[in-house]
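Supplementary Note 3. Input sequence used for the single-chain structure prediction.
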Amino acid sequence: METVYKACTIAGAAARGGAGIQADLKTFQELGVYGFTAITAINATNPKTEKSLFIQSVEAIEAQLVAINEQDDLDALKTGMLFSKEIIEFVADWLPTASVKHIVVDPVMFGKYGSSLLAEDAMEALKTELIPQASVITPNMPEASYLLDGKEIHTLDDLKDAARDLIHLGPKYVLVKGGHLEGPAIDILYDGNKMFQLEAPRIDTIHTNGAGCSYSAAITAELAKGRSIEEAVFIAKKFVTAGIRRFIPFELAPGMIDHRAYKVYGEDGVTMIEV
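The predicted structure, written as discrete structure tokens, is reproduced below.
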């Protein structure tokens, strides 16, 4: 019987389908991994309704995780938007009971439109209780800066320094994404000893909704299949670059990446070197 690889995402659901749980499941499917989900919030950001972010109760999240844990052993797991101190603490306490070998922490803090996706009192729990359990964390530049108490990150050297600082929070690896830099799209992967630079051509588009979620989900999927972290990150970089290159535009807002692109077209313009 063919091996079924299993991964779980604990994150928010995005109404437009381009980010969050929806992006994670699309990524898992495209990379040949079965996905389980625990929804922490429903994000329906729009200009018309007064409220657009609906946080789920810890009780509801616990029920989902118990149902997942009773069904099957997981090969890998990722966290996305957890939002509150209470949810982060609950997930951090639950993780050791799941016996998951690989944990990817995407420290989601800001939405595509600048909305806050992390409560003000949740940062300490994220830094001290969840991140130390991570196989790899995947902050973008604003998130890395926030994790480092406002440290300014503007250049490639800053990106490398941020990776060196973030490793002290306790994850096995740090992936700092340099999407806000000028020039090629460069990310830095660091394990406290070796540092790798991933580079792809920058694609001139605003349609990158879900890129960060999909990047961390692709890492999770490849770890579930037994890849090393370096291999998983390299494949994930190619996956998300292909998706950005063949984006799906929306009429009234920035569109999403195309999760089908990597399987159909691949992405040969990505490099990874030790620096």
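Residues 19 and 231 are 23 Å apart (CA to CA). The chain has one domain: 6-274.
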